[in-house]
Design a protein that fits this description.
single chain; mainly alpha; 2 domains; 4 helices; rod-shaped
Length: 129
Amino acid sequence: MICPNCGTNNSDSTKFCVTCGARLDAGAQQQAAQQPGYQPAAPVVIQPMNNQPLTTGQFFLMDLILAIPLVGLIMCFVWAFGDASNPNRKAWAKAKLIWILIGVVLTILFVVLFAGAFASIVNRIAYSY
């Protein structure tokens, strides 16, 4: 039996509510059953601003910032590993860092190869006389 005063569910043989002590009878239960209950509205899901897709202008601006030698590299790390960054910006910055790493490795490799080739040519010219 449901208490009309506090809404506690009591056993059918109980004459008084175990929570508030109100008298329980058959008429009170019918009254309680007829009262409409409060139903909260469904929560509204709002997509956070950080998950919005980036616009073409934002991508252009990020590329422009990345073109500034030291500032671009620092901002790329901030965008890639920062907590408050947009997921699209994070993925873009991580991809740019991978391309930068590939570029640095290839540059070092070519410098070593061309330095060795240049040294070999200079040695041939120097010892040919």
